[in-house]
Amino acid sequence: SIRLGENRKDDAERVLGNAVVSSLFISVLVTVTGLLFLRPILLFFGANEESFRYAYIYSSILTGGSLFQSLTFCFNNIIRGEGNPFFALTTTIIGFSVYAVLAYLFVFVFHSGIGGAAAAIVISQVFTCAWSLSYFRSRRSILRLKSRCLVPDRAILAKIYSIGIAPFVMQMAGALIIVYINHRLG
């Protein structure tokens, strides 16, 4: 948004590329770490003997597909920042609609339980990620996702992280509150 407001489209595309590379890197890191340490993570978050099996199935599927969720969030934020909040909203509505249909089919028609519910989420995220990516290849977008812009730039990444640190800390605080509540309820 800042670079577009300054009429610096090339710089804005470099920001887009760096945001995508950063999302990819962090997603892979979170996925690998999450899958390797899923058991202790679930226990830390309050899973008990009764819920662990279900939490493990659900979380392992979601963690495996977290790359698509991360990219979709990244794309949607950039689409909003580009000045097209309606497309971002449409993406969210489409993603939810795909999820709702698939969850119903997987859980109630195919009787695939908690794993089916998680698979429905991941499939809907793959769909919305592809939908969001298609935006940057369309004429609706001001920005283009170019391979030359996917080269990490420390200055750009530092700006991205400096803007994103406050929402990150708020999310982590919320997660810690959920951990506390889960342990109290357990």
Describe the structure.
With 186 residues, the protein is mainly α. The protein has 8 helices and no strands. Helix 4 (52-64) packs parallel to helix 7 and helix 5 runs parallel beside helix 7 (113-135). The model has no long low-confidence stretch (mean pLDDT 95).
Pick out its properties.
186 residues; 80% helix; globular; mainly alpha
SSE blueprint:
Layout: H1 2-5, H2 9-36, H3 38-44, H4 52-64, H5 66-82, H6 85-109, H7 113-135, H8 154-185
Helix pairs in contact: 2-5, 3-4, 4-7, 5-6, 5-7, 6-7
Q: What would you say about this model in short?
A:
With about 190 residues, the protein is mainly alpha-helical.
Helix-strand category: mainly alpha
Poorly predicted sequence stretches spanning 5 or more consecutive residues:
none
- Provide the β-strand percentage band: under 5%
Give the overall pLDDT as a whole number.
Answer: 95
What profile does the largest beta sheet have?
none
